[in-house]
User: Fold this.
Amino acid sequence: MALKTLSKEETHAMRKRLIGQSCRLFYSDNPVKIVRARGQYLFDEEGTRYLDCISNVHHVGHCHPRITEAAAAQMDLLNTNTRFLHDNIVLYANRLASTLPRQLCVFYFVNSGSEANDLALRLAQQYTGNEDVVVLDHAYHGHLKSLIDISPYKFRKLTGQKEWVHVAPLPDTYRGLYREDHPDPGQAYADTVRDLIEEVHEKGRKISAFFVESLPSVGGQIILPRGYSPKVAEYVRSAGGVFVADEVQTGFGRLGRHFWAFEQQGEDFCPDIVTMGKPMGNGHPLACVATTEEIAKAFTDNGVEYFNTFGGNPVSCAIGLALLDVMEKEDLRGNATRVGTHLKMLFRKLQSRHHVIGDVRGVGLFLGVELVTDREKKTPATKTADLLVKRLKEKRICVSTDGPWENVIKFKPPMCFSVDDADLVVSCIDGILTDLEQNCPDLEKDNIGRD
Ligand SMILES: Cc1ncc(COP(=O)(O)O)c(C=O)c1O
Assistant:
């Protein structure tokens, strides 16, 4: 039976009436109604095609037929919970294990990045017997209460910082405490964590975990400086804590050469816990925590069952397995490297033509373009970023912004994004920025003097 089709206006009116208004829409002035999608393209109710540069969730492409087939076939056969033996969960865990360092060999399947990070917090606290957590400034680790507490990006706007949460500086070498000209920013930023841990100890408190995105995305697509994570892990472990790598946005080959973004910190670096989510199920709710035998044993030894009704069910795991197959078959990591390198090179060229582009950074198909009004002072060009996003929508290109001032244009499209798509995006941005320079020179006037 076909579902009733609503006009766009009816959908919008019902959405306003029935759905909590804190669940925001993209382009809230004039939202887009998407009715179908394929690959890197979204189609609205009139059949207009939009290029999706936002969705790192629809990792191998929207509605990939191989994923749909795997889901439908398993759905037709069996879907149950993990209290029965089933091949899919063990085969999938085994495939994930082959992508990770040997030590990370125990898996818990859950339904969202938030559930994964909440479980990581429980694992860390149970294993260490400590409570306190160190996080990076501007970080976001999920929407559960436990995670709002460890997400400065959220708690600063809400109830504030809990006494068991400690915030270390974001290791941003573009505009942070130590910049590109510092001889060893990795060590210098790691030492800020060491100092913070000392302060925590002076208060008579103890660290359970250091949580970090392997490439802080909510903070504005920040590349952790070389040597940072191994040093921090050393400090955190010697304080009795564990290192949690949040790979919810960055995992599954998005960076191209590396399957996991933490691998950028060197072959010998291994976190104690890795959390994953968004791209795992290509849109199906599938997420996971990987950890060591020792940490898992401590969690088991508390004698309390961990039961998750939907996590790791046969349909989810069939989808997860199909996604890994598609990635290999279509060489999507190779594509992320090729197209990502091309896109970054084009952005760098654009930077030489448009003064508003202060920095271009990122790896593979996880890029950020930071807009500033003044390259010396690095004043965030938030209004330009906002207008650029709106103008790109008129060109049928969807992009988003991030960073503390929402002035970093973020690119994390489906991994099938092509060189032609990259060329189109850059030529549209070039045209829009040229137009803004000529016709809206006072756009950022209110921002002058802002840090
Ligand atoms: C880095 C990071 N961790 C965790 C989460 C939470 O994931 P979810 O929305 O699937 O609960 C997000 C979501 O945006 C995220 O960006």
The chain has a mean pLDDT of 96. The chain has two domains: 34-63+331-440, 65-330. Residues 112-114, 117, 140-143, 213, 218, 246, 248-249, 277 surround pyridoxal-5'-phosphate (CB under 6 Å). The longest helix spans residues 332-353.
